């Protein structure tokens, strides 16, 4: 082991320089297009942490209905009267039918860049990840917190490494 390898090991630098989105908390809640909008609203009200639903048309993923999208739609003039007793299929225009979908192995930084590159209206909306267990919903703030934690860990490791280097170089 070289001097620099031992310094890096002593500094506690992480062996894995990042993580993947498949390691983050995600959701697998699904609904069909025939689900009544009132039932979806009730599910959001009953679980304040629920970011959205994966909307299916039969066995296929139709899109994502986020909490924000639903509440925005039903808060529009006459939105509640128009949508609340009807199936979600009638609000198809309010569902993200072309959501970002990434493999669970996607690194955090790459996923964040791709999510932030979406159009303004969808930039902070949840997106889909394809895991071994199936399609899951990932909330953007979970990804942002994970990326911030990685950055903080990297900065701490860098500081430790610099201290070790200064100690070794200073002892010459």
**Helical amount:** 40-55%
| β-strand amount | 15-25%
Net shape = elongated
Question: What structural class do helix, strand and pairing data support?
Answer: alpha/beta
Runs with pLDDT <50, length 5+?
Answer: 1-16
Report on this model:
The protein has 172 residues and is α/β, with parallel strands linked by helices. Helix content is 42%, strand content 17%. It has two domains: 1-26 and 99-172, no CATH class; 27-98, CBS-domain (Roll). It is built from six helices and six strands. A three-stranded mixed beta sheet has the order 1-2-3. Strands 4-5-6 form a three-stranded mixed beta sheet. The relative contact order is 0.19.
Question: Can you summarize this structure?
Answer:
With 172 residues, this protein is an alpha/beta fold. It is built from six helices and six strands.
Which labels suit this protein?
CBS-domain; 42% helix; disordered N terminus
What secondary-structure arrangement, pairings included, does this model have?
Layout: H1 3-11, E1 30-32, H2 37-46, E2 52-57, E3 60-66, H3 67-75, H4 79-83, E4 101-103, H5 108-116, E5 127-131, E6 134-138, H6 140-170
Parallel strand pairs: 1-2, 4-5
Antiparallel strand pairs: 2-3, 5-6
């Amino acid at each position: 082991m070289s001097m620099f390898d031992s310094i890096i090991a002593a500094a506690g630098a992480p062996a894995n320089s990042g993580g993947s989105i498949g390691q983050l908390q995600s959701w697998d809640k699904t609904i069909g297009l025939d689900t009544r909008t009132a039932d979806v609203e009730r599910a959001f009200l009953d679980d304040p942490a629920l970011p959205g639903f994966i909307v299916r048309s039969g066995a296929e993923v139709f899109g994502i209905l986020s909490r924000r999208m639903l509440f925005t739609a039903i808060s529009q003039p006459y939105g509640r009267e128009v949508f609340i007793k009807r199936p979600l299929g009638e609000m198809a225009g309010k569902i993200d039918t072309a959501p970002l979908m990434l493999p669970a192995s996607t690194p955090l930084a790459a996923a964040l860049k791709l999510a932030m590159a979406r159009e303004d209206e969808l930039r902070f909306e949840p997106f889909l990840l394809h895991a071994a267990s199936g399609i899951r919903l990932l909330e953007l703030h979970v990804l942002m917190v994970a990326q911030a934690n990685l950055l903080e860990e990297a900065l701490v490791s860098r500081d430790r490494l610099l201290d070790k280097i200064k100690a070794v170089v200073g002892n010459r």
